[in-house]
């Protein structure tokens, strides 16, 4: 059973400036929910009970968001706004939240290492990255847990993407062991196009064992001074990748963020009709 999820949220969010000057990028909402809440909901719906945020300076809004707010709750109760009350209370009661500061910007591998003291020696745990919002019928992490249970080995989420984009990601080499599962034989972080082993890339979901912490400690920083998780993962002998079912949005990319906003709005009962009518009106000849 995987009970703990580590979610690194220490990044500065420069891609969304000026919005992220005073608020964490993870608190930018898609409609009315901060992007980080979509990630936490996916974890909790997959069975996670303990969320460990790896935070940095100026991230207190995230801690406040995943805490009770007695004044607000009393106010909502008095006004009989029960749906809103449920919205601010429910998720907080469904998991425990811990916060660890990453006090140096030393990369994703280092961020994960910051959680070491909160993970049991025989424990497997999940890592979810806040930029990757996934819309799926079965939560992507849950799909990965099923593969993990079967293979008893670490699992990464994979997606096939257009070749020209591979240099933005960790790229894998591997062999299919079933239609959607690959046994991995190689990993490269952000390779040049000509060095990429495939067009299958790592999306920000990982199921890892405690061993990863030793692997990270043995991993040297790259040219930018960061310790890459991808490089540490290479030390696993048995490592699998899952081509998960679902649609992924890069919430750190403005165009993808806009797509997520439009598509999530069209899925909401209250907006479907008026919002699609509005969109059709914008492009009357299409
Ligand atoms: C990180 C990982 C990369 C992965 C990506 C997924 O990169 O290092 O391997 O493919 O997340 O979103 P980042 O986007 O933080 O640069």
Helix content: 25-40%
Number of distinct beta strands: 13
**Radius of gyration, in angstroms, nearest whole number:** 20 Å
- The count of helical stretches stands at 10
In the CATH hierarchy, what is the superfamily?
A: Spore Coat Polysaccharide Biosynthesis Protein SpsA, Chain A
Indicate the CATH architecture: Alpha-Beta Complex
Mean pLDDT: 95
Series of H and E elements: EEEHEHHHEHEEHEEEEHHEEHH
Q: Strand percentage, roughly?
A: 15-25%
Question: Which sheet architecture does the biggest sheet show?
Answer: 9 strands, mixed
Low-confidence stretches: none
Distance between the termini: 50 Å
Given the helix and strand composition, which structural class is it? alpha/beta
CATH topology: Spore Coat Polysaccharide Biosynthesis Protein SpsA, Chain A
- Count of discrete domains: 1
Quickly name the level 1 CATH class: Alpha Beta
Which quaternary structure do these chains form? single chain
- Strand ordering within the main sheet: 5-4-1-6-11-8-12-10-9
Salient structural properties:
286 residues; nine-stranded mixed beta sheet; 13 strands; 34% helix; 24% strand; binds 1-O-phosphono-alpha-D-glucopyranose
Explain what the structure shows:
This protein has 286 residues and is of the alpha/beta class. It has one domain (4-252): Alpha-Beta Complex (Spore Coat Polysaccharide Biosynthesis Protein SpsA, Chain A), CATH 3.90.550.10. The chain has 10 helices and 13 strands. The chain has helices at 35-45, 60-65, 70-78, 82-93, 107-113, 140-151, 212-217, 229-233, 254-267, 269-282, and strands at residues 4-8, 29-30, 33-34, 50-55, 96-101, 124-128, 132-135, 155-160, 170-176, 181-189, 200-209, 240-243, 247-250. Strands 5-4-1-6-11-8-12-10-9 form a 9-stranded mixed sheet, sandwiched between helices. A hairpin with a 2-residue loop joins strand 2 (29-30) and strand 3 (33-34). The longest helix is centred in the last third of the chain and has 14 residues, at 254-267. The chain starts with a strand and ends with a helix. The relative contact order is 0.16. The protein binds 1-O-phosphono-alpha-D-glucopyranose. The site of 1-O-phosphono-alpha-D-glucopyranose (G1P) has 14 residues, from strand 11 and helix 8.
């Amino acid at each position: 059973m995987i009970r703990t999820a580590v979610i690194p949220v220490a990044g500065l969010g420069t891609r969304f400036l000026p919005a992220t000057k005073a608020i964490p990028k993870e608190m930018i909402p898609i409609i009315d929910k901060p992007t980080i809440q979509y990630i936490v909901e996916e974890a909790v719906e997959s069975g996670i009970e303990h969320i460990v945020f790896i935070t940095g300076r100026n991230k207190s809004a995230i801690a406040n968001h995943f805490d009770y707010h007695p004044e607000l709750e009393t106010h909502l109760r008095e006004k009989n706004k029960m749906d809103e009350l449920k919205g601010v209370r429910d998720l907080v009661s469904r998991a425990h939240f811990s916060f660890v500061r990453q006090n140096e910007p030393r990369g994703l591998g280092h961020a994960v290492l910051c959680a070491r003291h909160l993970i049991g020696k025989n424990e497997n745990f999940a890592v979810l990255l806040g930029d990757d919002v996934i819309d799926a019928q079965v939560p992507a992490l849950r799909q990965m847990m099923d593969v993990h249970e079967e293979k008893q080995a670490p699992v990464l989420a994979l997606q096939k993407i257009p070749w020209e984009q591979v240099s933005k990601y960790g790229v894998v080499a591997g062999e299919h062991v079933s239609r959607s599962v690959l046994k991995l034989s190689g990993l490269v972080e952000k390779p040049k196009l000509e060095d990429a082993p495939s067009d299958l890339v790592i999306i920000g979901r990982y199921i890892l064992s405690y061993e990863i912490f030793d692997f990270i400690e043995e991993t040297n920083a790259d040219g930018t001074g960061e310790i890459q998780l991808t490089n540490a993962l290479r030390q696993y002998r048995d490592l699998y990748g899952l081509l998960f079912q679902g649609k992924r949005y890069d919430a750190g990319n403005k165009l993808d963020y806009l797509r997520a906003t439009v598509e999530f709005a069209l899925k909401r009962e209250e907006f479907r009709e008026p919002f699609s009518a509005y969109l059709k009106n914008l492009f009357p000849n299409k």
